[in-house]
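SEQUENCE, STRUCTURE TOKENS:
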Amino acid sequence: MVAKGTVSELGYVSLRTTDLKASIEYAENFLGLRVTEATSTKAYLAAQETHHEIVYTQSDENGTDHMGVLVPNGEELAAVREKVARRGFKVITENPFETHAEAGFAFVDHEGYTWNVYQEADRYDIRVGFTNVDRFGHINLKVRDSITYRDFLIDVFDLKVSDQIGEDIAFFLRCNADHHGIAIMKRDDVALHHHAWQVQSIADLGRLGDRLIRAGSRLVWGPVRHGAGHNIAAYYLEPAGGIVEVYADMEQIYDPERGVKYWDPEDLSWINQWDGQIPEMLQYGFAPTTR
């Protein structure tokens, strides 16, 4: 079978933070992540038996350093690399951008986000019940041109669109059975709006709210049932200035021919099935690092 250049999983997100200590404490206390490796300026954390699902680096500014996507083998990696070359994107390294990868490369896309495309020698089986969250699940990106960015994700990473909001308001794209691994929404302020972590049930979202309030913080939204993705989600603000989503009950799509579900943007049930209310939280996010 000829390799198509298919991404199989969202691997991790790497963020810059002006307060490394606070970012680590939030990840440990509210998500239950464990530090797998750390220096005075950088920390790797994970829920699963892998080296990292999120990376924090001490910096003068908060922001998105890069995002990591997994490919299953060297043939798929080479096929993605060829598509990146064909599109003329800036390649910043021909090696994995982070440690604990077998092979990889990193490039900057047309909206300014940096992607590390890599393969690992060993990939974990899902384990549950050891941390507050089970695993890193997805990201939501704010982009200026959502249609062009949708086409980029389909072409370069071989993603499929699960749901679409209006003509160009938002797209939810998948690389495996999860309804979405990457969601994009049309905005003037380019930034990673939130990173998201899976739990087992809505009861876990209640416990998250309890942990936040005891620490003097709170949820900024939720729990809420989304229409696009069907997941029940809760959101809070982390020290680096962006949003964290914790969710359960994500729609699973096993049919590779499943078509796109279209939502009328006037029908706010696509984002809130329960009361139609949307909080003011789109202004938050982690702007991409300029390279």
